[in-house]
Amino acid sequence: MNKLPLTVAVSGLNNTDNPGPGIPFIRAAKESGRFELKIIGLAYENLEPGIYMRGMTDAVYKMPYPSEGKVAFLDRIRYINDKENIDVLIPNLDAELHTVMISEKELGELGIKTFLPTLKQFEERHKSELEKFGEKYGIKVPRSFPVSSVSDINRIPKDFDFPLMVKGKFYDAHIAYNKEQVISHFNKISAQWGVPVIVQEFIKGTEVNVIALGDGEGNTIGAVPMRKQYITDKGKAWGGITISDQNMIDLTRNLIAAVKWRGGMEMELIKTINGEYYLIEINPRLPAWLYLAVGAGQNLPEAMLLMALGEKVPPYTSYDIGKMFVRYSYDMMVDLDDFQKISMNGEI
Amino acid sequence: MELKKNLAISDTGFVFDANSGESYSLNPIGLEILNYLKQGLKDDEIREKIMEKYDVDASTFDLVYFDFIRTLQQFDLFEKS
């Protein structure tokens, strides 16, 4: 089979203790065998490890922070596109998704394709909107209360029993056992990620996750459930295993069918001792552990790239159960010249 | 009581619950008992088989056996009745 020449720009090269999905996405795309790939890395920090990982990217460009807005984003993308001629853009970080979504028309004019949820889908699954989302789609969710100031903390409903979860709108989650801890977590999270901060009821049980890909027409192209086996102090999976749980698959398929979800997603669920599932979060992109799905037989990045190009992709119907991943850290040696290039020129 | 169907039991005593992702390790007697349970043997039949093979009296066996069963229940390894 002839390989399809394809230039893909990918962000999320932060393979740190808070890893982004960029490098596993690139790894999966390269292993697909369907494409003759040129990978353009998009980075926000000079020390994102993916910048320096040999054989992963063909070029890397620094990007303006998403907070700088659409104009700065598009200016930079135009510059990169003039040099690299991007076919598909895969944003992998929650904080940049909104900017990319509202730029889809301009990206299209540049010949750059994406495969993202619609703005409506993106907005309605926000942590602060999760209760309404659960009601609308008939999914159990913990009650939550958005907090935008310290005084809001006094308005948390009295029947919210401690412990409570305090969560940032994009990242970060801490457990609070009393009001003082809620205030402390609120101050820390709001300083880093802004408001609202979400105070959520704590659901006791086992955290389980599903990675999935929707085609935007209600079909689930792939779905793999996983249980975290090793969790870092940032709450990130450092080890995980695929599990056989038809309830989780059904929940995912029903949700994707109802929402007509387009693109990658990660559902974070709590399974209680009574076998009930509570949705605690939907991340609107493939997660950093996406390579586990590839290892289990579902190359979702390959499917996503093909769908971005307008191809019909048949759904995956099975995956290997009991497939594990274990992360590791590794010290790469980096030439000062590379660091200098990315620091001074913003490209390498 | 019926063991969960998606329980994978290896010859070495490694047990994987595909539904929860949990894994356990058993000693040889634990493995033998779990295999009897998987074959659908009743408590009396398991007692008889173990007593035939090993030097153990019924009351000692029952004490240890039902403690083992409670542990399996605690780990949610039986089908819900």
Task: Please tell me about this protein's structure.
The complex is a heterodimer of chains A (348) and B (81). Chain A has helices spanning 22-32, 69-84, 94-101, 104-109, 119-124, 130-137, 150-153, 179-193, 246-259, 290-295, 300-308, 336-344; strands spanning 4-11, 35-43, 59-62, 88-90, 144-147, 164-167, 173-176, 197-201, 206-215, 220-231, 237-242, 262-271, 277-283, 324-326. Among the domains of chain A are: 4-114 and 331-344, Rossmann fold, CATH 3.40.50; 143-201, 2-Layer Sandwich (Dna Ligase, domain 1). Chain A has twelve helices and 14 strands. Chain A is globular and about 60 Å long. Helix content of chain A is 32%, strand content 26%. The longest helix of chain A is centred in the first third of the chain and has 16 residues, at 69-84. In chain A, a hairpin with a 5-residue loop joins β10 (220-231) and β11 (237-242). The two termini of chain A are 32 Å apart. With 81 residues, chain B is an alpha+beta fold. Chain B has helices at 28-38, 43-53, 58-74, and strands at residues 7-9, 14-17, 23-25. In chain B, a hairpin with a 4-residue loop joins β1 (7-9) and β2. Chain B starts with 6 loop residues before the first strand and ends in a 7-residue tail after the last helix. Classes of the chains: A alpha+beta (348), B alpha+beta (81).
